[in-house]
Design the sequence.
């Protein structure tokens, strides 16, 4: 070998070796693809956190996220119930555009079309690993669902590489976990059957055997008894697959932590959907009695602790500086949602709805105005923001964050507001409750006339129905007591016209 070639070879070797090894990510490359974690609660009200004004409950771990990030005071879920809010969060579409986006039975087919754009699909296509842990409630399968076989389509067909879920809610059958489409603990000798129409011969129900229930049903919830708790719907078999309610929170936590550890070296999107404080409220024994407010308070404290543990893992893995964390809830609060669990009796001075009127199921503010926090260590400056934002906007905002074009949906890019770099939010928003809609623009809220009961008696919540138009100035009249529809007809007309332009007549 000539001297010159030898020198070249010596020079080239380290370059070639370096070329074969996976390149270590520079800080710049890392921040170009920050991780995104959505921590999503179920039925947590605006007033349920001490960082949102609660005085009777202390939620230090969620408060720490709020104190280190942005505490939004005008943050909305798109709906006053679970399924439609989650639909909007994951698809960026107003749920009222899809007539099936209502509270789903545990056996309902998948609500999101497999050809529909979704937030996780968008991330997947741009090099992210995507995962969901926790409550799903967006339907599974395509109609003929066999719980004993691989279940598809489901989360894995609409954008999630990894899914570990409960099908619907903690109060609905089947009371089993589903790991990437397969029921955990499924047993061919004890097949699972599920029906929302009729009971299976010989199966005990809350209706016929109330004496077997450790938690008494108040309305609904009188189907199959699992772990002493009567549920919505009927289920047979699957003994080994049934979850232990008191262990659910810890179980989801471990999986969320494991997900983060497994995917820390690649960009990831985690949708961590906790089940608290939805019914049945089944605190782990470590939290029983801790709130003095009964099971509803106890499970909020448990969720707060759980989120603290999750945040510890994020910190230990060095991920906080490179992750946008969004914390929110799918709809407003409810006390008695079908079980006699002392939520009403032990409430004391606590105000789950905060200063707002209504609650879960309501077109009034407390139905959809929920805690909404963004956190990103070192990137987001701690602050409070009164900018109007909706969970539906995460899709377009995250598209901006990761530098891709967002699919065309109702989702609007609010990234600057979510990072605290702008005070410009949505100009308007349509919120939804039980397929009825109301319109917010600026500080005004308009609720069109609706037939139906003004108060949902079973849960004791004003849901917003009235034969007259309702118009409120939410800034001056935070609890919606002064209907200005007749005194300010110009404003009403302006609101109505704009609402109908978006919603259609
Ligand atoms: C209702 C249930 C309620 C709750 C809700 C769904 C009855 C009488 N009430 O139908 O308990 O499960 O559905 O809540 O069955 S959500 O937060 O998932 O939307
Ligand atoms: Ca909910």
Sequence:
């Amino acid at each position: 070998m000539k001297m010159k070639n030898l020198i070249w070879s010596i020079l080239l070797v380290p370059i070639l070796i370096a070329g074969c090894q996976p390149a270590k990510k520079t800080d710049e490359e890392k921040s170009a693809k920050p991780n995104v974690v959505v921590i999503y609660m179920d039925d947590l009200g605006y007033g349920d956190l001490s960082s949102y004004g609660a005085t009777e409950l202390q939620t230090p771990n969620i408060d720490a996220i709020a104190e280190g990030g942005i505490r939004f005071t005008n943050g909305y879920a798109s709906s006053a119930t679970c399924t439609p809010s989650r639909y909007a969060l994951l698809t960026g579409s107003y749920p009222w555009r899809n007539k099936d986006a209502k509270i789903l039975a545990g056996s309902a087919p998948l609500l999101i079309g497999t050809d529909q754009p979704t937030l996780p699909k968008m991330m997947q296509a741009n090099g992210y690993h995507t995962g969901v842990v926790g409550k799903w409630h967006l339907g599974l399968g395509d109609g003929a669902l066999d719980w004993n076989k691989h279940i598809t389509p489901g989360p894995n067909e609409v954008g999630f590489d990894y899914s570990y879920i409960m099908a619907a809610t903690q109060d609905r059958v089947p009371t089993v976990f589903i790991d990437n489409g397969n029921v955990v603990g499924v047993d061919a000798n004890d097949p699972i059957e599920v029906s929302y129409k009729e009971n299976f011969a010989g199966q005990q129900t809350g209706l016929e055997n109330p004496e077997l229930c450790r938690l008494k049903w108040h309305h609904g919830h009188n189907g199959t008894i699992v772990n002493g708790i009567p549920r919505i719907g009927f289920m047979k078999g699957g003994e080994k697959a049934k979850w232990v309610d008191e262990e659910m929170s810890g179980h989801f936590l471990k999986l969320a932590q494991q997900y983060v550890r497994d995917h820390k070296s690649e960009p990831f999107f985690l949708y961590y959907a906790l089940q608290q404080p939805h019914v049945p409220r089944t605190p782990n024994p470590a939290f029983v009695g801790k709130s003095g407010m009964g099971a509803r308070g106890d499970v909020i404290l448990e969720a707060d602790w759980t989120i603290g543990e999750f945040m510890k893992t994020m910190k230990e893995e060095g991920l906080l500086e490179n992750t946008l964390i969004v914390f929110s809830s799918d709809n407003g609060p409810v006390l008695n949602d079908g079980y006699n669990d002392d939520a009403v009796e032990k409430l004391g001075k606590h105000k789950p709805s905060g200063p707002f009127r209504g609650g879960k199921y309501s077109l009034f503010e407390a139905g959809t105005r929920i805690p909404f926090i963004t956190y990103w260590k070192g990137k987001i400056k701690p602050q409070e923001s009164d900018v109007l934002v909706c969970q539906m906007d995460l899709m377009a905002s995250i598209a901006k964050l990761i530098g891709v074009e967002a699919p065309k949906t109702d989702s609007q890019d609010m990234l600057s507001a979510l990072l605290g770099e702008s005070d410009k939010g949505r100009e308007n928003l349509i919120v939804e409750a039980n397929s009825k809609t109301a319109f917010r623009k600026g500080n005004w809220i308009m609720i069109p006339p609706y037939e139906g009961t003004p108060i949902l008696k079973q849960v004791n919540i004003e849901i917003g129905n009235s034969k007259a138009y309702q118009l409120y100035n939410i800034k001056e009249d935070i609890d919606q007591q002064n209907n200005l529809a007749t005194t300010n007809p110009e404003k009403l007309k302006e609101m109505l016209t704009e609402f109908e332009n978006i919603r259609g007549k």
